[in-house]
Amino acid sequence: MRFKILHTNDIHSNFENFAKITTKIKELKDENTLILDAGDFHDFKDIMLQGTAGAAGGKLLEEAGYDAIAIGNNEGFEGMNRIEIMTKNKNIPFLSCNIVKLDGHKIEGVKKSIIIEKGGVRFLIIGTSPNYDVFFNLMGMDTLNYKEAIQKEIEDNAGKYDICILLSHLGLREDKDIAETMEGIDIIIDGHSHILMEEPLVINNTILHMSGCYGENLGIFEFEYEKGIRDFSGINIKIENTEMDKNILNLLKINRNIAEENLGTPLYSINQHIWHDVVEENPITNLLADALRDKLKCDIGLINSGVINGGIRKGEVSFKKLIEICPSPLNPTYMEIKGKYIKEALQQSLDHEVCYKDGKGPGCRGKYLGRLHISGAVIKYKDKKIKSILLAGKELEEDKYYTVAAGDNLQRGTGYTSLQNNKNERYNPEYLRILLKEYLAKDDFFSRSFEDRWIEER
Q1: What distance separates the 2 farthest-apart alpha carbons in the chain?
Q2: Residues near 241 by Cβ (< 8 Å), separated by ≥ 6?
């Protein structure tokens, strides 16, 4: 008997592409088809997901006919509460055998695995999530050893299934290792690595397949089953020229209206425009640098303007606007770093070509990297060359360690690689946009944000 798996991974809330994928799914599926997503379908940069606490995503998956989704890091970054809301859609199983509460107990609604029967063949589908313990811990969650958790599901379901599918958001490196070192897994539908496979990868007796990212392709894996898998093939098809499914578009319209209403309530008002720029010093990024320094009580606040997408006009400010201009799930981060590495990054920041580099990276949704903005220091420069960096009137010492408050992207060295030479890092749970929300309402911080910290000497 011939079976088909239609699969996606790392959609990252590109829902217009998903509307095209849904059209193709409805065209290709039959009674012997499984429809699976390997995680990061939800990306909470999206206003609709923020305004429905993630519930809208499940409705889209349900309309497209999905049988299961693995919980990726982006499903988890918003915390247990959001996962529990998403899993209330009983028609879409959210799978992870290795994500739990900090105390080790089960997260409400999360299933470790499911068994689905098609054409008289029983499929055990096990979900896995990546080990993002540092950030998951901030949200009250933990991840177990995924190999041990997978093995337990295989053993606990012995005799109940014919084919074992691992629906994985671990990434290709980890899943290759699983295929090399573990037995009993027939198929791995992979995610997290964003790799578009031209054909399935076979390691030992396990077949792996992945479909790129952002909903640009639909994965199709077909095989015959007769006491084992044989005569299999796997392709990824571009959906660029496919029409959007009308039901998905209608759901998007309905849920975006709900989100707009939920998030559009004014929080407070500001009395003047607070503007933004990619390469020039600007007040809204200065304000975020000041907020970081104050919140984490550091010598210096440091943030790149690329984590913000725009400014705010004077008048009412809503949380919807804050999500729009600061969508990245980045955490305020404390680190200790030598002055020479801070200076190197700041010097790089004077190069406009550096500022216009791609701003996307792990956890970062910016279009551009952007210029570094600083709090607690004044920088004097001439002809794009730093002459001095003064902290409370004293010159920055190259071999001295300073405490720095930044985003976790900079702590990892994203864009400004010298900043990765740090130690004793720790993270706050709230995202950068929550700091903006708090500090935009503080008159003293708002006023101070317009004071220049980069002084050009003539």
Answers
A1: 80
A2: none
The domains located in the chain, with CATH, are 2-259 (3.60.21.10), 267-456 (3.90.780.10)
- E strand intervals along 109-186: 113-118, 121-128, 141-143, 163-168
Angle in degrees, 0-180, between the axes of helices 432-439 and 283-296, rounded to the nearest 10: 100
Which tens digits make up the pLDDT trace of 214-267?
A: 999 999 999 999 989 999 999 999 999 999 999 999 999 999 999 999 999 999
Element (H, E) at 212: none
CA atoms within 13 A on the CB side of 279: 10
* 223 CB burial (10 A radius; 0-12, 13-18, 19+): buried
Please state, in angstroms and rounded to a whole number, the distance separating the CA atoms of residues 285 and 324: 15
**pLDDT tens digits, one per residue of 363-374:** 787 899 999 999
Name residue 371's amino acid. Answer: R
Query: Which residue's entry shows tokens 């009395």?
Result: 271
- What would the two tokens of residue 254 be? 């309905």
What the block records as the tokens of 158 is 């012995």
Q: Quick check: 369 and 303 in contact, CB under 8 A?
A: no
Helix (H, G, I), strand (E, B) or coil at 270: strand
Record the pTM.
Answer: 0.88
Crossing angle of helices 246-263 and 55-64, rounded to 10°: 170
Dig out the tokens for 80 from the structure.
């247990």
Residue 284, C-beta contacts closer than 8 angstroms, at least 6 positions apart:
274, 275, 276, 308, 311, 312, 325, 436, 449
Beta strand residue intervals within 139-257, DSSP E: 141-143, 163-168, 187-190, 201-203, 206-209, 217-225, 229-238
Q: What one-character DSSP code corresponds to residue 184?
A: S
